[in-house]
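Q: Give me the 3D complex with NAP.
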Amino acid sequence: MKILLFGSNGQLGWELARSLQALGKVFSLNRQSCDLSKPELIPGIIDSVKPDAIINAGAYTAVDKAEDEEELATTINGISVGVMAEEAKKNNIFLLHYSTDYVFDGKKAEPYTEEDIPNPINAYGRSKLAGELAIKQVECDYHILRTTWVYSCRGNNFLKTILRLSKEGDEVDIVNDAYGAPTFARNLAEVSTLMLAKRIWQHSEGILEAPSGVYNATDTGETTWFGFAESILTAAKEKEILKLKSAFSIKPILSQECTLAAKRPKNSLLNGDKLLRDYGIRLPVWQNSLGLCLDELCLY
Ligand SMILES: NC(=O)c1ccc[n+]([C@@H]2O[C@H](COP(=O)([O-])OP(=O)(O)OC[C@H]3O[C@@H](n4cnc5c(N)ncnc54)[C@H](OP(=O)(O)O)[C@@H]3O)[C@@H](O)[C@H]2O)c1
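A: Here is the predicted complex, encoded as structure tokens.
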């Protein structure tokens, strides 16, 4: 099987480039080999590889910067994704794409299901929703995995920011009234690989059990950003990968006290029942995954 992977340098892309190799030959593209702000490059690349599946882990993910760069974010997260979907439809290729809880406003009291109506409250969320809608409109064979609070040993993420700040000292304010599930990029890559294996086999047998659609895919459980930070610091100290500056502490604050440019949803929880029902998959409990990620950081 030939798999074309966009965004192979990102947190998720890096993990996918490894795990997808179990399924066949992976053609990995990063920003240098395909700039997703130039959608016109995509058809030629897909035509030259002729993949059985396209996996798009590339995205404009600078949530606050997107407030000033919405057009660029929309080109990368919306228009380019639509072009991938068109090529997938034309050439009978399965498309696996990733989206976010930021397509919602976070006002729901319960975890969001795949059927809930999106209503993004920031530019990044609008750009990601544009990508979802473009895929749905084209009606290729696709899955969109919506996920939340992604971290890994590589790239920029909350886990690495907390570890860095803890070495610098001072007090850091962290939001304690926004709920979500921290999700280890490796788990998402492995789930993607399992889903793709099943999907491609079904495709070849002509028995598509799960129709195209959106799937929520996050690690299991919930916390706040403050709770996540506390767990990171506790686990890092236990594993002795952290020598805390004595001046360092974290302070819980309310979302309304936060000065970031983009508004964030207060409820980022996604209900994973559909993934369990259709694929028999429930992702690991987030605290376990955090431990695994920190174990790996110990090796560096
Ligand atoms: N991170 C989260 O908390 C989170 C939460 C929910 C959903 N998601 C979604 O999950 C997916 C994976 O996210 P991630 O955490 O792996 O993000 P990430 O680490 O920021 O990776 C995104 C990748 O996209 C690439 N990219 C950005 N602009 C590009 C362009 N113009 N052309 C080509 N490549 C470009 C980046 O390239 P460079 O490496 O060169 O910058 C990077 O490798 C995305 O769809 C994201 O929207 C993420």
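A quick observation: Residues 7, 9-13, 30-31, 34-37, 57-61, 76, 98, 100, 128, 147-150, 155 surround NAP (CB under 6 Å).
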